[in-house]
Protein: AIM24 family protein
Amino acid sequence: MNQQLAGFAPAPVAARMENHGNHMLKVAMQSGSDLLARVGSMVAYEGFVQYEPNPPAVRQIARDWATGEGAPLMKCSGDGLLYLADYGANVVVINLNGDGISVNATNLLAFDAHLQWGVERVKGLAKFAGQGMWNTKISGQGWVALTSRGKPIVVDCGGGEDETYVDPDALVAWSPNLKVKGKRTFKAGSLIGRGSGEAFQMAFSGQGIVVVQPSEDSTDRLRVRG
Structure:
């Protein structure tokens, strides 16, 4: 039986964050290199790993992110291997290497605690979404893990004049240097996307990428303030 299951054993550690299959994240934990992860995402660990749900620093930074209860994050610390997942969603691992990324909060699985991060208003959308929309920007030298409901597509905006249009309910993340604006698409008799047509779409232009998932799950999307 052990021989039959050998193919599912984790590979030797090669980086701070790695995929184990398409739907699980493996994190190499070391003392002094804490991790912030979505509460409830831990599925297994080896070694000695401690958890602190919604630590004070997170509550202070992420008060606007949420719900009134703060961001659903926990601090993970210790030595060993930590395995995270989010209800079978695909996991995308990114080494920022000094760059930044703007992430939909519901698609944020984990990131290195030393990275710079905060909640920011998405510019250019106030007239489409009441007082505006909010996202989480992360930058610096370190690792980030995102989730996607299905295998995502990464669109390179290319820096040209053409804009890339995305349904906000399918948006996962984008390069923070991209220009963003809204575009209304709902008209009587117009069927764009699912249901009776989307109220608006997000248009991206400039040099950078947009990550889009093959799902229009509108649960807890980009926070709308209105």
Observations:
- The first strand starts at residue 17 and ends at 19.
- The CA atoms of residues 48 and 73 lie 19 Å apart.
- The helical segments are 2-5, 56-61.
- The chain is about 5% helix and 45% strand.
